[in-house]
Amino acid sequence: TVVAGRAFAAVARRIxxxxxxxxxxxxxxxxxxxxxxxxxxxxxxxxxxxxHLALHQDVAVRMPLWFDEGYAGYAAxxxxxxxxxxxxxxxxxxALPDLRGLDGALRGGAGTAEAAYALAISAVTELARRNPTGxxxxxxxxxxxxxxxxxxxxxxxxxxxxxxETAWQGxxxxxxxxxxxxxxxxxxxxx
Length: 191
Fold this sequence. Notes:
This protein has helices spanning 5-21, 42-58, 65-75, 79-82, 85-92, 99-106, 110-129, 137-144, 149-157, 161-175, 178-190, and strands at 24-27, 32-35. With 191 residues, it is mainly α. It has a two-stranded antiparallel ribbon. A hairpin with a 4-residue loop joins strand 1 and strand 2 (32-35). The relative contact order is 0.11.
């Protein structure tokens, strides 16, 4: 793969940001993963980045960033992120974005990244939960077949993208509110 001009600048910027804020980046079009060797969680990070490559290898339709990152975390089994104190705190203080806002948070700085990744995983988990099979398999089949993302959400959950977003926000608020944050260890900050 040859990357030149504006594309090179965009790729270079992504790589620099990834290495400043994170430990790795997947470049699906180039079938490449760049990893920092000094990371402490290399197996988990590699699973996450491989999930990005597999997703983009299988699915050619445009997907929102929250799904891309949430799927990678879901497929990599990053349940520790899903249960993170940062997620509980974000929801407890009312910082639960809509899905478009979640895309922006995923592109943001390190301060919001951990909660944003956890929220993305929670949204993908909710997609699976709302399917009668309890899995992402029917959604992935539709996406592989080239179905539009929003149409695949409707067909596999029975909810339009907007209604899914509202349902996900409600489920997340119930699951990760102030009481959960306090029980998860955030209470020591209150004292």
